Amino acid sequence: MSGKAGQGRKFNVEDALEAATLVFWDHGYEGASLSELTHAMGINPPSLYKAFGSKEDLFFSVVDHYNATHGNFMSIAFAEEATGLALMRRLLLEAAEHYASTSYPGGCLVISAAVTVTSANRHVGDRLAKMRNDNIAAMAEALTRDLNAGLLPQNTDTKAMAAFVGATLQGMSQQARDGATKADLTRIANYAITAIGA
Fold first, then answer.
1. Tag placement on the chain: N or C end, fewer CB within 10 Å?
2. Using an 8 Å Cβ cutoff, are 196 and 189 in contact?
3. What does the DSSP assignment read for 93-147?
4. 107 vs 117, which has greater pLDDT?
5. How far apart are CA 92 and CA 64, in angstroms?
6. pLDDT tens-digit series, residues 43-72
7. CA 147, 141, 170 angle in degrees (round to 5)?
8. Domains of the chain
9. In whole angstroms, how large is the CA radius of gyration of the chain?
Protein backbone atom coordinates (compact mmCIF):
# COMPACT_ATOMS: atom_id res chain seq x y z
CA MET A 1 0.00 0.00 0.00
CA SER A 2 1.38 3.38 -0.99
CA GLY A 3 0.71 6.85 0.32
CA LYS A 4 -2.33 8.67 -1.06
CA ALA A 5 -2.33 11.87 -3.07
CA GLY A 6 -2.36 14.94 -0.89
CA GLN A 7 -0.60 13.20 1.97
CA GLY A 8 2.92 14.24 1.02
CA ARG A 9 5.62 11.82 -0.06
CA LYS A 10 4.35 8.45 -1.19
CA PHE A 11 5.77 5.39 0.54
CA ASN A 12 5.14 1.69 0.83
CA VAL A 13 3.61 0.93 4.22
CA GLU A 14 5.07 -2.58 4.49
CA ASP A 15 8.56 -1.33 3.64
CA ALA A 16 8.18 1.47 6.17
CA LEU A 17 7.03 -0.98 8.84
CA GLU A 18 9.99 -3.26 8.16
CA ALA A 19 12.37 -0.32 8.50
CA ALA A 20 10.72 0.78 11.75
CA THR A 21 10.84 -2.81 13.00
CA LEU A 22 14.60 -2.90 12.69
CA VAL A 23 14.97 0.40 14.56
CA PHE A 24 12.71 -0.63 17.45
CA TRP A 25 14.27 -4.10 17.52
CA ASP A 26 17.76 -2.66 17.73
CA HIS A 27 17.15 0.27 20.08
CA GLY A 28 14.04 -0.68 22.05
CA TYR A 29 10.85 1.32 22.40
CA GLU A 30 12.25 4.30 24.28
CA GLY A 31 15.66 4.16 22.62
CA ALA A 32 14.20 4.57 19.14
CA SER A 33 14.02 8.29 18.43
CA LEU A 34 11.55 9.89 16.07
CA SER A 35 14.40 11.11 13.87
CA GLU A 36 15.87 7.59 13.62
CA LEU A 37 12.47 6.15 12.78
CA THR A 38 11.57 8.70 10.11
CA HIS A 39 15.06 8.52 8.57
CA ALA A 40 14.92 4.71 8.37
CA MET A 41 11.35 4.77 7.02
CA GLY A 42 12.18 7.44 4.45
CA ILE A 43 9.34 9.72 5.55
CA ASN A 44 8.87 12.93 7.51
CA PRO A 45 7.17 13.19 10.92
CA PRO A 46 3.81 14.44 9.56
CA SER A 47 3.64 11.44 7.20
CA LEU A 48 4.42 9.09 10.08
CA TYR A 49 1.64 10.54 12.20
CA LYS A 50 -0.86 10.52 9.32
CA ALA A 51 -0.10 6.91 8.42
CA PHE A 52 0.40 5.36 11.85
CA GLY A 53 -0.75 7.78 14.55
CA SER A 54 1.55 8.14 17.54
CA LYS A 55 4.94 6.56 18.16
CA GLU A 56 3.16 4.03 20.36
CA ASP A 57 0.66 3.21 17.60
CA LEU A 58 3.56 2.76 15.19
CA PHE A 59 5.33 0.51 17.68
CA PHE A 60 2.39 -1.86 18.06
CA SER A 61 1.93 -1.91 14.28
CA VAL A 62 5.59 -2.96 14.22
CA VAL A 63 4.91 -5.68 16.81
CA ASP A 64 2.10 -7.03 14.60
CA HIS A 65 4.43 -6.88 11.60
CA TYR A 66 7.20 -8.65 13.53
CA ASN A 67 4.85 -11.41 14.71
CA ALA A 68 3.70 -11.94 11.12
CA THR A 69 7.24 -12.04 9.69
CA HIS A 70 10.43 -12.44 11.73
CA GLY A 71 8.68 -13.91 14.77
CA ASN A 72 6.03 -15.99 13.01
CA PHE A 73 7.80 -19.27 13.81
CA MET A 74 5.94 -19.29 17.14
CA SER A 75 2.41 -18.99 15.73
CA ILE A 76 3.24 -21.54 13.03
CA ALA A 77 4.51 -24.00 15.66
CA PHE A 78 1.39 -23.50 17.77
CA ALA A 79 -0.77 -24.22 14.72
CA GLU A 80 1.14 -27.26 13.46
CA GLU A 81 2.27 -29.26 16.50
CA ALA A 82 -0.14 -31.91 17.75
CA THR A 83 1.29 -32.30 21.25
CA GLY A 84 2.52 -29.90 23.90
CA LEU A 85 5.88 -31.65 24.26
CA ALA A 86 6.51 -31.46 20.52
CA LEU A 87 5.53 -27.79 20.64
CA MET A 88 7.98 -27.04 23.45
CA ARG A 89 10.80 -28.81 21.62
CA ARG A 90 10.09 -26.99 18.37
CA LEU A 91 9.79 -23.55 20.01
CA LEU A 92 13.10 -23.96 21.81
CA LEU A 93 15.04 -25.23 18.79
CA GLU A 94 13.57 -22.73 16.35
CA ALA A 95 14.16 -19.87 18.78
CA ALA A 96 17.83 -20.86 18.85
CA GLU A 97 17.96 -20.38 15.10
CA HIS A 98 15.89 -17.21 14.86
CA TYR A 99 17.25 -15.38 17.89
CA ALA A 100 20.86 -15.85 16.79
CA SER A 101 20.31 -14.62 13.24
CA THR A 102 23.12 -12.35 12.09
CA SER A 103 20.90 -10.75 9.44
CA TYR A 104 18.79 -8.87 12.00
CA PRO A 105 19.14 -7.52 15.55
CA GLY A 106 19.55 -10.40 18.01
CA GLY A 107 16.88 -11.97 20.15
CA CYS A 108 13.15 -11.33 20.09
CA LEU A 109 11.64 -7.87 19.66
CA VAL A 110 8.64 -8.70 21.87
CA ILE A 111 10.99 -9.78 24.66
CA SER A 112 13.61 -7.04 24.41
CA ALA A 113 11.92 -3.89 23.12
CA ALA A 114 10.58 -2.72 26.47
CA VAL A 115 12.78 -4.47 29.03
CA THR A 116 13.45 -1.07 30.56
CA VAL A 117 10.86 1.67 30.19
CA THR A 118 10.22 4.71 32.31
CA SER A 119 7.04 4.99 34.35
CA ALA A 120 5.50 7.16 31.63
CA ASN A 121 5.65 4.20 29.23
CA ARG A 122 5.02 1.39 31.69
CA HIS A 123 1.80 0.55 29.85
CA VAL A 124 3.86 -0.28 26.74
CA GLY A 125 5.90 -2.77 28.73
CA ASP A 126 2.72 -4.16 30.26
CA ARG A 127 1.19 -4.79 26.84
CA LEU A 128 4.27 -6.72 25.74
CA ALA A 129 4.31 -8.64 29.04
CA LYS A 130 0.71 -9.66 28.43
CA MET A 131 1.66 -11.00 24.99
CA ARG A 132 4.45 -13.07 26.52
CA ASN A 133 2.22 -14.31 29.34
CA ASP A 134 -0.52 -15.23 26.86
CA ASN A 135 2.03 -17.36 24.99
CA ILE A 136 3.02 -19.11 28.23
CA ALA A 137 -0.64 -19.73 29.05
CA ALA A 138 -1.14 -21.26 25.59
CA MET A 139 1.91 -23.49 26.18
CA ALA A 140 0.42 -24.59 29.51
CA GLU A 141 -2.86 -25.44 27.80
CA ALA A 142 -1.04 -27.57 25.23
CA LEU A 143 0.87 -29.37 27.97
CA THR A 144 -2.33 -29.91 29.96
CA ARG A 145 -3.82 -31.62 26.91
CA ASP A 146 -0.77 -33.92 26.95
CA LEU A 147 -1.35 -34.56 30.64
CA ASN A 148 -5.00 -35.45 30.07
CA ALA A 149 -4.00 -37.74 27.21
CA GLY A 150 -1.55 -39.63 29.43
CA LEU A 151 1.53 -38.32 27.67
CA LEU A 152 2.91 -36.73 30.86
CA PRO A 153 3.16 -38.07 34.42
CA GLN A 154 0.04 -37.24 36.41
CA ASN A 155 2.01 -35.14 38.90
CA THR A 156 3.32 -32.82 36.18
CA ASP A 157 2.85 -29.12 36.92
CA THR A 158 2.05 -27.96 33.40
CA LYS A 159 1.92 -24.29 34.36
CA ALA A 160 5.39 -24.46 35.89
CA MET A 161 6.72 -26.37 32.89
CA ALA A 162 5.34 -23.76 30.50
CA ALA A 163 6.76 -20.96 32.65
CA PHE A 164 10.16 -22.69 32.61
CA VAL A 165 10.11 -22.87 28.82
CA GLY A 166 9.01 -19.24 28.64
CA ALA A 167 11.83 -18.18 30.97
CA THR A 168 14.30 -20.18 28.89
CA LEU A 169 13.12 -18.49 25.70
CA GLN A 170 13.46 -15.08 27.32
CA GLY A 171 16.94 -15.95 28.55
CA MET A 172 17.91 -17.21 25.11
CA SER A 173 16.77 -13.91 23.62
CA GLN A 174 19.04 -11.97 25.96
CA GLN A 175 21.91 -14.38 25.34
CA ALA A 176 21.50 -13.70 21.60
CA ARG A 177 21.58 -9.95 22.27
CA ASP A 178 24.83 -10.58 24.14
CA GLY A 179 26.36 -12.36 21.14
CA ALA A 180 25.45 -16.03 21.64
CA THR A 181 25.56 -18.06 18.43
CA LYS A 182 23.02 -20.54 17.11
CA ALA A 183 25.21 -23.36 18.45
CA ASP A 184 25.31 -21.72 21.89
CA LEU A 185 21.54 -21.31 21.99
CA THR A 186 20.93 -24.80 20.64
CA ARG A 187 22.89 -26.24 23.58
CA ILE A 188 20.69 -24.25 25.97
CA ALA A 189 17.57 -25.42 24.13
CA ASN A 190 18.67 -29.05 24.31
CA TYR A 191 19.26 -28.82 28.06
CA ALA A 192 15.76 -27.42 28.48
CA ILE A 193 14.30 -30.13 26.23
CA THR A 194 16.01 -32.80 28.34
CA ALA A 195 14.77 -31.16 31.56
CA ILE A 196 11.13 -31.33 30.49
CA GLY A 197 11.41 -34.73 28.86
CA ALA A 198 10.60 -33.52 25.38
1. N
2. no
3. HHHHHHHT-SSS-SS-HHHHTTSS--GGGHHHHHHHHHHHHHHHHHHHHHHHHHH
4. 107
5. 21
6. 999 999 999 999 999 999 999 999 999 999
7. 110
8. 13-66 (1.10.10.60), 83-196 (1.10.357)
9. 19
